[in-house]
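Tip: read the tokens left to right.
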């Protein structure tokens, strides 16, 4: 009896201390998550470097981390800086009245006289829409400016987060295998099940991060290029916005280029509007329809609809990190149920 009480008390304290430790690390969850993602994605590269230079794990991990910084971290920082600058410029132009959402909507209304009637049939008042659009544009651009100002004031915090992420990533690259074995030994789920779960974690993280980011980069670059070619203001800003939105499967970048195409038609730029629609539907859309199933769905072995819903749910719950965490949770959910059906259910699998 006493032994059972001690065991339960110990397990309770173990759970409590683990939760408290999780709370202590809460401010650094983002840095820890992306350090784990870097460790998982670049681990194969680190192993190749290790095979080339021999048993020098510190040097191999450092070289891998330097490659990651050059090809991922620095370009992202440069793009983010340019994005903030373009966003501030857009806010200033809206604030000065150079860009008026109400005027844009009025031009669309004049160009498509049947539009107000169609909108009224579905319960949308054009005047109310114009007012709300103006308010939303001003509020959105002001929010972007405020976020940019806060980001500028918190530059030191951001640099610390990036440094902590890279610092942890170095040790995960160097000692990743030993840490995985330690977790397998510690967790009471059965070694074979744990190996399967860790393998699925690595597989899904690698596929979703590499796949989604590659798709986002391609769509953002294509969107920015066509905006630049058609002389639409802020091509870099809208390219980055399209890249972020393309993390949402199926609709993503179309939320930017389609309204711009409608505006071009409304202002009489029929050729530019047609070029943008054709390029958006055929080229940008094709990049999503071809690359995403190849890079994400196939490697994660998840159906497309599961990838779509888990990505949207993950982003809505956890922000930008959710585009990886959502499909990861979905994949682990399916693995757990697969193990349950095979090992705990009397019915044949």
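Filled-in amino acids:
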């Amino acid at each position: 009896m006493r032994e059972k009480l001690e065991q339960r008390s110990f397990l309770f304290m173990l759970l409590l201390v683990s939760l408290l430790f999780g709370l202590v690390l809460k401010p650094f969850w983002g840095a820890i998550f992306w350090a784990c993602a870097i460790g998982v994605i670049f681990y194969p590269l680190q192993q190749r470097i290790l095979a080339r230079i021999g048993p020098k794990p510190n040097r191999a991990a450092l070289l891998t981390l330097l490659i990651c910084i050059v090809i991922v971290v620095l370009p992202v920082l440069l793009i983010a800086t340019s994005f903030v600058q373009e966003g501030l410029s857009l806010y200033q132009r809206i604030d000065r009245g150079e860009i008026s959402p109400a005027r844009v909507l009025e031009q669309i209304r004049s160009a498509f006289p049947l539009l107000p009637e169609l909108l009224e049939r579905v319960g949308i008042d054009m005047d109310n829409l114009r007012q709300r659009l103006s308010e939303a544009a001003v509020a959105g651009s002001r929010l972007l400016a405020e976020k940019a100002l806060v980001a500028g004031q918190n530059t030191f915090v951001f640099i610390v987060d990036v440094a902590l992420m890279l610092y942890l990533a170095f040790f995960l690259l160097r000692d990743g295998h030993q840490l995985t074995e330690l977790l397998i030994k510690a967790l009471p789920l059965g070694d074979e099940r744990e190996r399967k779960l860790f393998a699925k974690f690595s597989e899904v993280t690698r596929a979703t991060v590499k796949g989604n980011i590659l798709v986002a980069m391609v769509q953002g670059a294509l969107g920015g290029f066509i905006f630049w070619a058609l002389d639409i203001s802020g091509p870099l800003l809208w390219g980055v916005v399209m890249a972020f939105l393309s993390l949402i499967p199926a609709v993503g970048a179309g939320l930017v280029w389609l309204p711009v195409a409608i505006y071009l038609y409304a202002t009489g730029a029929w050729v530019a509007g047609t070029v943008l629609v054709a390029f958006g539907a055929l080229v940008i859309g094709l990049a999503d329809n071809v690359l995403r199933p190849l890079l994400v769905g196939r490697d994660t072995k998840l159906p497309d609809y599961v990838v779509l819903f888990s990505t949207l749910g993950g982003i809505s719950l956890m922000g930008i990190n959710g585009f990886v965490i959502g499909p990861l949770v979905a994949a682990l959910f399916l693995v757990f149920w697969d193990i349950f059906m095979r090992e705990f259910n009397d019915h044949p699998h």
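Residues 57-96 form the longest helix (40 residues). The chain has 13 helices and no strands.
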